[in-house]
Amino acid sequence: MSNGSVTHAISGLGAGEGTLGRHVTGELDASHGVVLYLDSISVSFDGFKALNNLSLSIDVGELRCVIGPNGAGKTTMMDVITGKTRPDAGTAFFGQTIDLTKLSDAEIAQAGIGRKFQKPTIFEHHTAFENLELAMKTDKSVFRSLFARLSSAERDRIAEMLKQIRLADAADREAGLLSHGQKQWLEIGMLLMQEPKLLLLDEPVAGMSDDETERTAELFLTLAGKHSLVVVEHDMAFVEKIARKVTVLHEGSVLAEGPMHEVHNDPRVVEVYLGR
Fold first, then answer.
1. Which residue segments constitute the domains of the chain, with CATH numbers given?
2. Terminal CA-to-CA distance of the chain, rounded, Å?
3. Cα–Cα distances in angstroms (integers) from residue 94 to residues 33, 164, 241, in the given order
4. Do the Cβ atoms of 234 and 203 come closer than 8 Å?
5. Global pTM?
6. What is the rounded CA–CA span in Å between residue 130 and residue 107?
7. Whether the Cβ atoms of residue 250 and residue 68 lie closer than 8 Å to each other
8. Contact status, residue 90 vs residue 42, Cβ threshold 8 Å
9. Residues pairing with 115 in the sheet
10. Tens digit of each residue's pLDDT (9 = 90 or more) over 172-216
């Protein structure tokens, strides 16, 4: 992994606590049962509307799948949520009080939103155990953390996470030697060590074997309820395994939303996406 990639990997892990307080006061307030609320979000790039009056809400503990053709606005939506892209119009709130449009990407990560990109970003020359250790130690220099003594409670927490992400037998293996699916699980584990309230997962099973895909579905179903998850995915068999509610995006707007069986049979969805 290059130095630039390492910097990217830890950008959300070591965000300074002092910066967050400028915009966010107190803990996440999701007392109304909604963890994420997007209202009338629009984003244009050189005249092209990537998002067009997009509105959606995610409940606390919900596992939401977002599907749609290429260019539908799925990535831009996640970029807005994580502060990478500023909307031209609309509002984006994390809980009732945290205005995401006023925060940097590092502040948003610190507030409790974790994002996993399509390609896993891990420390390939460190073991799976050390990767989780680095993710956990947000209050120290990332590299100095490797030489700090872990408490028994911290070791137990890492061991439990390794078990949860199906890597208990690979704890001492260099991350670069793991299979593609195992690398994906490791990065998910690194995000979970931050105890996020909301996880955004971009095509998490792309390139996985059938067995790895099945195990990932099982993992996500165990995470739902403890965390809120937004899963963007093209693998419809995988979506059918995990989906409770599906949002279909098309041309930057919500085309359809509801249970998978309803969305699957919606003529508009079949025409613009499923029928392809």
1. 3-29+60-79+104-274 (3.40.50.300)
2. 37
3. 11, 27, 27
4. yes
5. 0.85
6. 24
7. yes
8. yes
9. 200
10. 999 999 999 999 999 999 999 999 999 999 999 998 999 999 999
